[in-house]
Structure formats: C-alpha cells, structure tokens
Amino acid sequence: MLYIKSFTFNPFQENTYLLYDEKGNGTLIDPGCFDLAERKELLDFVTEKKIRITQLLNTHCHVDHVLGNAWAKKTFGVDLFIHREEASVLKAVEVYAPNYGFVGYESSQADGFLVEGDEIKVGDEVLKIIFVPGHAPGHVVFYHKASNQCIAGDTLFRGSIGRTDLPGGNHELLLSKIKSELFSLPDETVIYPGHGPETTIGFEKTHNPFVGKNARP
Hints:
Keywords: Hydrolase, Metal-binding, Zinc. By secondary structure, this protein is an alpha/beta fold. 25% of the residues lie in helices and 30% in strands.
C-alpha cells in the first residue's frame, strides 16, 4: 500500500508530498519547506512514522518547490532527481530567490535525471514518470497505477491549470499534454496538485474551465 502525506509550506502555500509504504520506505517530492518550523514539522512526521527516505524528486524546479532540496539532501542523505530540462530552471532559483524574500536560500544540484516513461519505486510500490511540460519545460508527474493516485505538481489543479507566463511556459502545450497524458488516466484517479486541494481526473474532465468538456475554445 502507498501512503501519501501532504504538507503545505512557504508563502506560496506549496504542497510537499511524502510517499511511503507499509515497511517505512519513503520518497520526498517537492520539498518546499524553508523555515525551521516547516522543516521540523516534516522531520517530526518522518521520525514518528519511522520512515526511511531513500530518494528526493522534483516535479519541476520553480522556487516554491525546491526551497528544501539542499536541506533534505543533507538531512536524509539522499540524491535528487529531476527532468533534464529542469536543470537550468533549478540553477536560476539561486539568482531570483532573494527577490521573493528567501534570503539564505541554499542551492542544490541534481544527482540524476528522470526519464519519461520510466518507473521509480517507493519500496515495492511502482510510480510511472509522465512528462507534462507547459508550466515548466521539464515538468513530470508521478502516477501510482495500483491505487490510481498521481502527484501532479503544477499541471492540473481543482478547477484550474498551471500558469504558463513564466520562462519556459507554453499554454497550448500544457493544455495539449493535460488532455493527452493526464486525461488518459482513469476518471477515478486522484490528483494531488502542487497547490490547493486534491481533485480527480473525472471531475476535471467535466468541470475544468480550461480543459474540461465545456472549456472555452
């Protein structure tokens, strides 16, 4: 069984996800924790549940999703994996992070790259890597077929989609990829987004004003 614990961190109200199995094998995704209280909250949960975090993943590398990368790498002794197209996005954060008030941001580098269509494991649980660019050039999502759950980053939200006006964004590409990649998942698939509440593929197919059946042309 795959358990998913969400935390909401930093002024952007970013959702950080900790995935773990019944044996305590864990994977941390998009650690947005920046201040001491946020990092303590995450660490306390890991300690209480006796979770062994074995890998660190980024869906994409905008500032709000990577604030805790360097801390997590050192604290848990893990490697960081991102899509190759996000390397320059991650590098840029150290330049602009202070502009958002994140003084003292510590940069990090990827130790390996995620490849579209490959699989990664949380213990014995298998996640498929799906490439959904548009919000960011190398944005990936992680789909757990056995439970129909998807860590979707900033691609699809409840009633919305990721913004596409940042460097590397492409509005038409994001719309296309949501329809071809995410909407090919079962309707009951639960979407865990990078911000805000969870949703389902079925709900967004019907109600999403950008990509749903009644979306504006």
